Amino acid sequence: MARSNQKLAFALLFFTFFIWGSIYVTGKMISDDVPASLVACLRCVTAMIPLYFMSRKHLKTKIDRKDWKYFFLVGALGYFLTVQMIQLGIALTGASMAALINAMTPVAVTILAAIILKEKITPVKCLCLVLALAGTIVITSGASTQGETMGIAVVLVGVVSFAAASVYMRRLTAKYPAVLVTTYSMAISLIFHIPVGIVTVCTRPVTITPLGVAIILYLGFAGSGVAQYTWTKCLSMLPASTCSLFYPLQPAFAALLGAWLLGETFTPAFFIGLMLISLDVVLNTWEARQMDKALTAKESSNA
């Protein structure tokens, strides 16, 4: 890869994780006015606008009938359950805490890929699992209220559901453009989001303000639209293992923005958890890169 393209990819990764980190903070800003389930619904409805325009040239791609069940699973798990759990977790706990727990996603993907796809479980993967569990235990021990502990548990459900969806997403992106997989899966998620959103409006108090509208548009367009495109672009320019190295930036940006905009404070447990989870992601990514190098060397020797 040309050095200029590599610099562009790194810049896009910083931008992507800044946007994703900011989602937690902006979501927390309206959590008192708009219920989490409605925020999740409106975020995904709004995201369909940029996703449609980004995927237009691929919409005529023929989808194998047997693959629709995987689109359904990705939509139900990755874009409905995950988004609902993340938004609820943000409302229950701090933006920084939710972002930190969500940073374990790459490790959860690795573990579930081993279970679902029967990929080999290595000693490093076992160590990563131990670090992830240790980080979660430390963070949970630092929770100051029962609601905060519940928020951490809810975000963990979101992490596992997105990791499961990502495993099926691997199968789909091997055959179809990533942006098309995202668009169809997001559209399928609306089958669940819209009824939940309607019930929420009918049963829960909702306060709509200009700031709330602006944040929901930001969550949809920037968080699920622009950031999704830049992430896909980065994956086309750099190995996935390299891109995953930047995942700890998400809670770091969320912590900085949370302290600045929300006045959030952090306990020693938060910083210890941040170090454990960051080491977890780095180790997981390092092993993936080593395996990629070994596979490339093997293919070269067989050529």
Automatic annotation (TrEMBL):
<keyword id="KW-1133">Transmembrane helix</keyword>
<feature type="transmembrane region" description="Helical">
    <location>
        <begin position="37"/>
        <end position="54"/>
    </location>
</feature>
<feature type="transmembrane region" description="Helical">
    <location>
        <begin position="124"/>
        <end position="144"/>
    </location>
</feature>
<comment type="similarity">
    <text>Belongs to the EamA transporter family.</text>
</comment>
<feature type="domain" description="EamA">
    <location>
        <begin position="150"/>
        <end position="283"/>
    </location>
</feature>
<feature type="domain" description="EamA">
    <location>
        <begin position="11"/>
        <end position="140"/>
    </location>
</feature>
<dbReference type="InterPro" id="IPR050638">
    <property type="entry name" value="AA-Vitamin_Transporters"/>
</dbReference>
<dbReference type="Pfam" id="PF00892">
    <property type="entry name" value="EamA"/>
</dbReference>
<feature type="transmembrane region" description="Helical">
    <location>
        <begin position="70"/>
        <end position="92"/>
    </location>
</feature>
<feature type="transmembrane region" description="Helical">
    <location>
        <begin position="269"/>
        <end position="286"/>
    </location>
</feature>
<dbReference type="InterPro" id="IPR000620">
    <property type="entry name" value="EamA_dom"/>
</dbReference>
<feature type="transmembrane region" description="Helical">
    <location>
        <begin position="176"/>
        <end position="196"/>
    </location>
</feature>
<feature type="transmembrane region" description="Helical">
    <location>
        <begin position="98"/>
        <end position="117"/>
    </location>
</feature>
<keyword id="KW-0812">Transmembrane</keyword>
<feature type="transmembrane region" description="Helical">
    <location>
        <begin position="208"/>
        <end position="231"/>
    </location>
</feature>
<feature type="transmembrane region" description="Helical">
    <location>
        <begin position="150"/>
        <end position="169"/>
    </location>
</feature>
<keyword id="KW-0472">Membrane</keyword>
<protein>
    <recommendedName>
        <fullName>EamA domain-containing protein</fullName>
    </recommendedName>
</protein>
<dbReference type="GO" id="GO:0016020">
    <property type="term" value="C:membrane"/>
</dbReference>
<dbReference type="InterPro" id="IPR037185">
    <property type="entry name" value="EmrE-like"/>
</dbReference>
<feature type="transmembrane region" description="Helical">
    <location>
        <begin position="243"/>
        <end position="263"/>
    </location>
</feature>
